[in-house]
Amino acid sequence: MRTAYLDTLYELAQNDKRVYALISDNGAIVYDRYRRDLPEQYLNLGISEANMIGMAAGMASCGKIPFAYTIGAFLAYRAFEFIRNDVCLQKQNVKIVGTGAGQVYSALGPTHHSTEDLGGLRALPNLTILCPASPMEVRKATKAAYEHEGPVYLRLGTNREPEIYEKDYAFQIGKAVTLRDGKDITLIGAGSILKDVLDAAEQLQGEGIHARVIDMHTIKPLDKDTVIKAVEETGRIVTVEDHNVIGGLGSAVAEVVAEYGKEIKFKRLGLCDFSKGYGTYKEVKNNNGVGICCVCQCVKETFE
After folding, report:
1. 3-state SS class at 101
2. Which of 30, 32, 42, 142 has its CA 20 to 30 A from that of 187?
3. Total structural domains in the chain?
4. Do 147 and 224 have their domain in common?
């Protein structure tokens, strides 16, 4: 995902001198080509995330298009006040890019895990939130963020996510993508964990459960029509997220389901506490109840 983002940003900056890359003393090596070829459009603000967001807001007020990039946990938590007051309140055209979404930085522990970022940022007015699931979708989401006038939070994994799209498709902010059709239940996911959701759906099909899989790449504004269609056509929904169950994708979908008013089987699968343990991404997901086997078990519970 990271390479897909950097390549796309490089292309955008080459073609538009208003585009700037801002970093917070991380990602310096991976920005080597950008820094070499576009030095006037690159700023390293040091370990000062709040100041980076403040500077980005000032640049946007002068007509620039800054992409402020660092580890998502440091942006969403440490710089929250600046995101709220300098960017969202002022409706500044700033693109906030958080890498290491969810528990992707598995070996670094909960201090580096972005597992509450959506819960906080989703409450902010004027902020669009994109959570792409694969390298191709990262490229599309980055371009969409660039074209969108206003604040955007782009939530990225790292650099090891597999491609889940076999062919090109139309990416539209606020419009989910159906990756797999099914009549028995709908699984809604976003971000890096979506590959696990697809693998779980394949496993469930072998057990006679045909699951629809939705890529909800835009957390805000949420695609309400796709959720309501799933309510009507499958009668069961499970949301899967590498995030706390409070405030994230599951909460957003639950709000739509509750306001629609039709009784269905509904479950949110995600973290219920800070993440625990260290290891590979797969190991940490399994240890925290969001691995493939956990998805399958959660689905089966809706049929009991």
Report:
1. strand
2. 142
3. 2
4. no
Same domain, 149 and 268: no
**What per-residue confidence (pLDDT) applies to 27?**
63
Q: What is the CATH number of the domain that holds 200?
A: 3.40.50.920
Residues involved in catalysis: 49
Residues 145 and 31 in one domain: yes
Q: How confident is the model at residue 30 (pLDDT cuts 50, 70, 90)?
A: confident
Confidence of residue 304 (pLDDT cuts 50, 70, 90): confident
Segment 159-181, tens digit of pLDDT: 688 999 999 999 999 999 999 99
Burial class (CB in 10 A: 0-12, 13-18, 19+), 201: buried
Strand order in the sheet with 152-155: 42-44, 19-23, 65-71, 95-99, 152-155, 128-130, 218-220
Instruction: Report DSSP state, residue 87.
Output: I
Q: Do residue 151 and residue 285 come from a single domain? A: no
Mean per-residue pLDDT of the chain: 95
- Would the CA dihedral through 229, 167, 163, 156 be positive or negative? negative
**DSSP reduced 3-state for 107:** helix
Taking the CB of residue 80, how many other CB atoms lie within 10 A of it?
17
Distance between CA 188 and CA 182 in Å, rounded? 12
Residue 292, both tokens: 């493939």
Give the distance, in angstroms, between the CA of residue 75 and the centroid of all CA atoms in the same chain: 14
